[in-house]
Amino acid sequence: DDPVHSDIVLGAGISLLNDNFYDKHKNFNDALFRLAHDIQIELLNFDCHILAGSGYVTGKLTTLKPKEIFKWTDEHFNPIVIVENASPDYTEAAMKIWKMGGCIITPVGGQLCHLATISREFDGKLIRVPNIKEYEEDSYVSVNLDEGKFKVNVL
Questions:
Q1: Which one of 15, 71, 73, 146 has the fewest CB atoms closer than 10 angstroms to its CB?
Q2: First to last CA, the chain
């Protein structure tokens, strides 16, 4: 989503009024995302960064573009949906995905990103996997948010 939703940005004295904040401070933001991810991996032995939610879900991996209408026809599997970021562009789709028992995966975003914030109202599952775009569409995955585990090609 928007890395300016982080207290560390304010603490560092970086102005949030800048246009294109992320582009101007990409190295800083990427370092923050990596640090948060590394802490969960090292201290908690997690495979992925849990942004919101709990429980366990298995399903089929699909990709959604910003503001694209989400359609899911596979009644046998939960939707596990990759989005570019956790911005408001995915709000409508996220609510549908969560109502279906699915999970959203993003390569960037923190616990105060837009989708993480609204997920609390909808009991949504949201994780960050930095290399998620390396996985193939229609792969079967399992996500255990309580244990921070993300596995691909499981049935």
A1: 73
A2: 31
